[in-house]
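Request: Not sure, any thoughts?
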Amino acid sequence: MSPHSLSDRIASHPKAELHLHLEGSIQPATVCELTARHGVIMTGEEVRQRYAYRDFPEFIEAFKWVTSFLREPEDYELIARDLGEHLLTQHVVYTEVTLSIGVMLLRKQQPEANFEALLRATEPFKSRGLRFRWIFDAARQFGADAAMRVVESAKRCNSKAIVAFGIGGDELSVPTEEFRPVYDRAGEIGLHRLMHAGEVGGPEKIREAVELLGAERIGHGIAAINDPELMDLLAERKIPLEICPGSNMKTGALALQLRREDVKLEDHPLPKLLRHGIPIVLSTDDPAMFHTTLEQEYGNAARMGLQEKDLARIVEMGFAHSFLPAGERLGA
């Protein structure tokens, strides 16, 4: 089923987008504007070539390249406005956007100044029916000390718009145990806890995130399909998986978890995970870099055999498992 064959009800229903990286949302035309600001002239086709990759390491390299042009608060304002306009076309009314604060700190930027610019850029969207909230993200491969600096940056920003702390990056790098003090500190200052796990790592990475770090949602988590007991745990505790099918195809994560090279979208474990009682949040991850939209991801879910009632449930779960206070969950 193509995205255009979705029912009008699903396609036009107000939605929440919860697993979305700001830096992965930058469309090629905007990348060209960014590079030109910093003395590098590129065509849209050259950017699209940069956005083509065969596996997860190549994606990480592309991500590093595009973020190298985010140097001033005004650069963040530009991409946040573009993201807001895009989300409105997808009927998104609430989003929790992940910010690569760890990368900002690595590049010796001031996250607080960048964050103020993001707030300025996104505040006008509230009157247009779109609310932004933010997740401060550390890169796992940078280590626990660097992750702690991300948490402390969130504390200095002192904004209710920051709802969570998470860790992405190379999940095979630093042992999960080393981040326990970081997540404890995040909880102390009132942040919810997220973790990318089970994307390219095994199901044990998901279990560690839940049991050692107290993760409340798991980014990706498709490795759970390889551990029935873990699936039971996620269902029992109602811990959502932020599923991004297009991303899983583009990075090779799905092929890796299924231990096959000839995977198709229809092989994705989303329907099995959903039927097992695990909450599912459907998202785009890095929509520009993965050439996808939220509407396309709902179309992908339909191609996997999910019916309209299943898709409607997933829409509702996007609000139910957001980090908005219960009384403010628009679709709950």
